[in-house]
TrEMBL record, chain A:
Principal place of residence: membrane
Keyword Cell membrane set for record: yes
GO CC annotation, single: plasma membrane
Keywords, comma-separated and alphabetical: Cell membrane, Membrane, Transmembrane, Transmembrane helix, Transport
Membrane topology recorded in Swiss-Prot or TrEMBL: Multi-pass membrane protein
Ranges where the ABC transmembrane type-1 domain occurs: 89-272
Pfam families: BPD_transp_1
GO biological process: one example: transmembrane transport
Gene3D superfamilies: MetI-like
Top-rank taxon, per record: Archaea
Subcellular location: Cell membrane
Name of the encoding gene: phnE
Name of the protein this chain belongs to: ABC-type phosphate/phosphonate transport system, permease component (PhnE)
UniProt xrefs under PANTHER family: ABC TRANSPORT SYSTEM PERMEASE PROTEIN P69 (PTHR30043:SF1), PHOSPHONATES TRANSPORT SYSTEM PERMEASE PROTEIN (PTHR30043)
Length: 299, 242
């Protein structure tokens, strides 16, 4: 008897085991608070069977047939080019593109103004707070807000994802800028250059590879999330999914759209990864990109 | 009577008021003078250079530049060549050298990245002066150590500064390459630029500097001629006696 209690005591002395015990008890309490029971899971499996029966096989007419109800309306002659999948995916890509470009244009100056090695501490701290505030809300919530403000359509999606991109990209960027070596910045400071020139001509070019790679990463991210914001009406392929979900419950078409989206997202991730890998590699800098970024490098 | 460019007056230098790295620094640089700075590693040479550049305030005492407080120096009047050169990575030689002309760009020239003809011209001249005209569009990352030093010097030359602060600019270069760099610095000084250069090798410093200062303990002392002769050369520089 005392042996058992000794074992229990030794057992409880281990921090890992105590933590595990506390977490298990908490999980059970939380689950019961949420009224999660095993019978619900049983319901799910029967629902799942219904859905799979209705969704399978996927109905790829979404790739071939014209969506006369597309918004903005599609004026192309060929039917498949006006199909929900093509129109929706194109919109998602366009929204992601605009949001990434706008996000980059807005976030780069903000990032430079919030890098502690480039900006005065008070300014850096307050702009960081602003960037953090933009990141608090996920892009889906921003989309809800902008759908209310500017109405249903791609504009709401662009604005929503721009907000999130600025917050997220800004953080990545000021971290990259803070990582540049101290010496070039000291050379600039010794020359007596103003802070914005130190940032623009010394820090940003030095960090150009990471900045470009982050921008591509943000584009990938925006393509993935651009599919979600459509569900609340902010344009893109998600909007077309929503159209089939409610009230028609055409799960086979939704599944086809999901497959199309999946394939496109994977393709974009792969291409983007290839390109980014070239930036991350140290040597040598691709002149093509450099000229895009810094047009006066020809001395 | 040549003008006094840099004047450090009874300054304490370092990061900690209680324990400065160097105390009672008296240092004067006249126009066109090359002054060497030696001392063992970790003693505070780089810190002194950065203080003269205005990057760190002196703990006490004052620094004046061309007769006015150092903080009032005009843009581009002081050039810095840091220990690891401070080149902008992955950018071309031309871009890096052009940066030396940035202090005299008008706001719209820098805002819209439109360097003036004069800025481009002086960049080209400086790149030619250091013999890198074939490399002007090459990324600095693909240059050798000696070539990278030339780029840093060319950038300082384009500034046409009154003072150049060069930290370990000769580093571990072989004698031949070091000679080329020294000649470039000499040319710069002949045009009236004062140069304060750190060289951990006092024997070499003596060969090309007008004066050599040494950090010893917490003091900055000037090496007189006799004293310089008494300074033992580094063992590696001595040929073993046969
Ligand atoms: N930013 C800093 N803050 C505090 N101490 C520093 C800093 N930079 C250098 N030091 C210290 O100052 C001393 C002198 O460094 P440094 O000037 O680089 O020497 P040297 O160039 O002669 O080799 C070293 O002990 C170093 O650790
Ligand atoms: Mg040093």
């Amino acid at each position: 008897m005392s042996d058992t209690s000794r074992v229990v005591q030794i057992f409880l002395k281990r921090p890992m085991i105590r933590v595990a015990l506390v977490l298990s008890v908490l999980s059970v309490l939380v689950a019961s608070h949420l009224r999660i029971t095993l019978s619900r899971l049983g319901d799910a499996s029967s629902n799942l069977r219904v859905i799979t029966q209705e969704a399978w096989p996927p109905d790829f007419s979404v790739v071939t047939d014209r969506a006369s109800w597309a918004y903005p309306p599609c004026e192309l002659q060929t039917d498949w080019m006006c199909s929900p999948a093509v129109v929706g995916m194109t919109q998602t890509l366009e929204i992601a593109f605009l949001a990434t470009i706008l996000g980059m244009v807005l976030s780069l100056p903000l990032a430079a103004a919030s890098a502690t090695n480039l900006a005065p501490p008070l300014m850096a701290q307050s702009i960081r707070q602003l960037l953090a505030a933009l990141r608090v809300l996920p892009s889906l919530i921003w989309a809800l807000i902008f759908v209310i403000l500017v109405g249903i359509g791609p504009l709401a999606g662009v604005l929503a994802m721009t907000m999130y991109s600025v917050g997220y990209l800004g953080k990545l960027q000021y971290e990259a800028l803070e990582g540049v070596s101290r010496e070039p910045l000291e050379v600039a400071r010794t020359m007596g250059l103003p802070r914005w020139q130190v940032a623009r001509f010394f820090a940003i070019p030095e960090a150009a590879n990471s900045l470009l790679s982050q921008m591509l990463f943000m584009f990938e991210y925006n393509v993935r999330h651009g599919s979600v914001v459509g569900l609340v009406g902010a344009g893109g392929i998600g909007w077309y999914m929503q159209y089939y979900l409610e009230p028609f419950k055409l799960y086979d078409r939704v599944l086809a759209l999901i497959i199309v989206m999946y394939v496109v997202v994977i393709a974009i991730d792969q291409v983007s990864l290839r390109i980014r890998r070239r930036f991350i590699e140290d040597e040598p800098m691709r002149p093509k990109w450099k000229q895009v970024f810094l047009p006066w490098t020809d001395g | 009577m040549s003008e006094q460019i840099l004047s450090v007056n009874s300054a304490a230098i370092g990061f900690d008021d209680v324990e400065p790295l160097i105390e009672g620094v008296e240092l004067r640089l006249r126009e066109g003078e090359i002054v060497g700075l030696t001392g063992r590693s970790g003693i505070g040479k780089t810190t002194l250079i950065r203080t003269c550049a205005g990057l760190i305030p002196p703990l006490s005492g004052s620094i004046s530049f061309a007769g006015a407080p150092l903080g009032d120096k005009a843009r581009g009047e002081v050039g810095l060549i840091p220990q690891r050169l401070g080149l902008i990575q992955h950018q071309t030689v031309g871009y890096n050298v052009l940066m030396g002309a940035l202090p005299r760009a008008k706001w719209y020239q820098s805002a819209f990245s439109l360097p003036s003809a004069e800025m481009r011209e002086s960049t080209r001249n400086a790149v030619e002066a250091v013999g890198l005209q074939d490399k002007i569009l090459t990324s600095v990352n693909s240059l050798s150590g000696g070539q990278q030093r030339r780029v840093a010097i060319a950038r300082a030359m384009v500034q046409s500064p009154k003072l150049v602060l060069a930290d370990e600019c000769l580093g571990e270069l072989d004698a031949e390459t070091a000679k080329g760099i020294i000649n470039l610095l000499r040319d710069l000084a002949n045009d009236g630029t004062s140069i304060l250069i750190v060289d951990h090798n006092p024997v070499r410093a003596r060969t090309f500097c007008d004066r050599v200062l040494q950090l010893r303990g917490k003091r900055l002392v000037e090496l007189g001629d006799e004293e310089q002769d008494a300074t033992p050369a580094l063992p590696v520089l001595r040929r073993p006696e046969q």
